[in-house]
Specification:
With 170 residues, this protein is an all-alpha fold. The protein has one domain: Ferritin, core subunit, four-helix bundle (Ferritin, Up-down Bundle). 79% of the residues lie in helices and 0% in strands. This is Ferritin. Pfam families: Ferritin. GO terms for molecular function: ferric iron binding; ferroxidase activity; heme binding.
Length: 170
């Protein structure tokens, strides 16, 4: 971290690095959860949701990159061992035991909501105290909120389709 950044930062650097590393590991877990979900998905709208999973996986990987850069700028080291991702994560990895599209969407919706809470925490911690970390976490928070909306919309579409099919079958 540069001298000016150290002067204007009003945060405990060790605590901030710990939280950023936790978020960093969570992004890697989210990346894998989306990637593996895209590989095994089955059911209606599979192709469309599969494409969206891959898009979101790419964005989660991008978030991990932004966090790694910020961790290094702050004088820290990103978690080097994937086992630490699971150990430190609040937003953990949920094994997709059910490959049906709706189950995967609900699983990923839960993960996004956890990520939203994580980045809200970081934004609140950094607001007015560490502008660069606030900016990075706010950018990620914005995308996580978009992801939540995507999954809510897909879930609603699938449920409405199922309801319509039931009515049409009567």
């Amino acid at each position: 971290m540069g001298q000016s950044a150290k002067k204007i930062s009003k945060l405990d650097n060790k605590e901030l690095l710990d939280i950023l590393n936790r978020a960093y590991g969570e992004e890697w877990l989210a990346y894998y959860q989306y990637w593996i979900g895209s590989q095994i998905i089955s059911g209606p709208m599979r192709v469309t949701v599969q494409e969206e999973f891959m898009k979101h996986a790419k964005e989660e990987l991008e978030h991990a990159g932004w966090l790694a850069t910020r961790i290094i700028q702050l004088g820290g080291t990103p978690l080097l061992n994937p086992a630490e991702w699971m150990e430190k994560a609040r937003c953990g990895y949920e094994t997709p035991n059910d490959d049906f599209v709706l189950a995967l969407l609900k699983q990923n919706l839960d993960s996004e909501r956890c990520a939203i809470a994580r980045y809200q925490q970081i934004c609140e911690m950094c607001f007015g105290k560490d502008f660069e970390t606030f900016d990075v976490s706010a950018r990620i928070l914005h995308q996580e909120l978009d992801h939540e909306q995507d999954w809510e919309d897909f879930i609603q579409d699938l449920q409405e389709g199922a309801d319509y099919a039931k009515k049409a079958a009567k």
